[in-house]
Amino acid sequence: MKRFILVSLVLFGSIAAATWAVCWAQEDAPSAGPGAQATGAGHPEDAARDRQAADPEQNRQPSLEWGNELYSHYCTPCHGVRGDGNGFNAPRLLVKPANHTDAAFMSARSDQKLFDTINLGGVEVAKSTLMPPWGAAFDNDNKIRSLILKLRDLCQCQAKKSW
Ligand code: HEC
Fold first, then answer.
1. pLDDT per position in the chain (163 positions), as tens?
2. What is the pTM of this model?
3. How far from chain centre, in Å, is Cα 89?
């Protein structure tokens, strides 16, 4: 009889210990289900952080480096990787894309004129509609300012006039 009680005690003890261990492990495990981490939506700080996450370049300052990235992505198909107007699209265009390395041509255009051309397209500066407007696609004027830095780097020139 004594032995029976001892065995039951040991058995009961191990079951209790196992149950406790399982519960403890579950409590400790990081909860990863959906909605496990509250986002605190509705907070103005969170809204700002979400906007920043959606557009991490929102606060980026104009730079030649940025201009290089944008130019190679958006402008080289027509203006060419060297900016001389010989992009892969150029042979199919009825009007030849401008040569951005031509200092005489580029210095005759103010930064404001370049801004308007890039922002609103060729048609806004009495040029061909084959030069597309980029303003709506860019949503951030610092991209256009960066492209102007790139254009001035390509022509190695500054504007001879300010309008
Ligand atoms: C679909 C082809 C195409 C793309 C892409 C393009 N351009 Fe042009 N661009 C042209 C053409 C064509 C002209 C010449 C327009 C004319 O002489 O009437 C031109 C002319 C220009 C001019 C000179 C306008 C003037 O004052 O005579 C500038 C500056 C310019 N583009 C900048 C850019 C920049 C910056 C980009 C990239 C964001 C770009 N272009 C992308 C086709 C393109």
1. 566 555 555 555 555 555 555 545 555 544 444 544 555 557 878 876 776 677 788 889 999 999 999 999 999 999 999 999 999 999 999 999 999 999 999 999 999 999 999 999 999 999 999 999 999 999 899 999 999 999 999 999 999 977 6
2. 0.75
3. 25
Whole-Å CA distances, 146 to 6, 65, 67, 118:
83, 8, 4, 11
What is the identity of the amino acid at 78?
C
Q: Specify the residue with its C-alpha closest to ligand 1, atom 7.
A: 131
CA-nearest residue for atom 9, ligand 1, is 131
CA of 114 to the centre of ligand 1 (A): 10
Q: CA torsion angle for 87, 90, 91, 92 (degrees, to 10)?
A: 130
CA angle, 55 then 60 then 66, to 5°: 100
Judged on CB neighbours under 10 Å (0-12, 13-18, 19+), 98 is buried
Identify the structural domains of the chain with CATH numbers, from first to last: 64-155 (1.10.760.10)
